[in-house]
Amino acid sequence: MSQAETSLETAHMQMEAEGSEAARRAYLTRLAQAELFLWITSEEAPEPRVLETEEGRLALAFDTEARLASLSEGAPVPYATLSGRAAARMLRGSGLGLGVNLTGVGGAFVLDAEGVDWLAVASDARPEVEQGALGALSAPEEIAPELLEAVDRALSSSAGWAQTAHLVGRDGGALLLVVAGAGPEGEAALGAALAEALAIAGLEADGLTLAFVEAGAPVLLRLADIAIRFDLPAAPVAEMPGAPGRDPAKPPRIT
């Protein structure tokens, strides 16, 4: 297996290798999360460029600019940058499918028009959020592996939105995900990402509720011994450009 360039390509390789419904749903989650470069007719009138195929009429999107450019033979290509979920919402109801990475060198995927509409609906899912006291909590029991994987996919794509998340059980076998250290924007983004991942995985009715607490909240001590803990990745730190002449590989340009 060759090395993947992007997380979407990694998910595609896993889907091809496993051939399972779970792997396909995992790929669709990554597709919704991915930044895509959508080929459009022009920047002045940003309509999707449509390809007529045996599988229907397709809008074309790529997960790197290089893949998009490879189809243009060096000519400038107008494109719009958007997430996979935004692309699905834009195409919803248009009768267009979505062709992803149709470059002829691997990683190609076609989501038909019905699939595009389904992905758009899934991306609009929103979670149930617990308000007030959390009540009696316990160690979670009999968690479906698909649910754990869906939660992990959502949280791993949520860099900088919160610090930790803790999955615990409640009365009646319900589950509660307690997220610590998320601000208002993080709460909205995390909630949407989790609901979307669960919807794509087909787990909307599995009874997972969200609760948000401050970093260092006393309840976290209670959760330490009973919860499944997830540590969210930190937000990437933007690299500051160095002063001219500091990098010997990039000497200052003198004109």
UniProtKB/TrEMBL annotation:
Q: Which residues form the SseB protein N-terminal domain?
A: 14-114
One family name in Pfam for this protein: SseB
What name does UniProt use for this protein?
SseB family protein
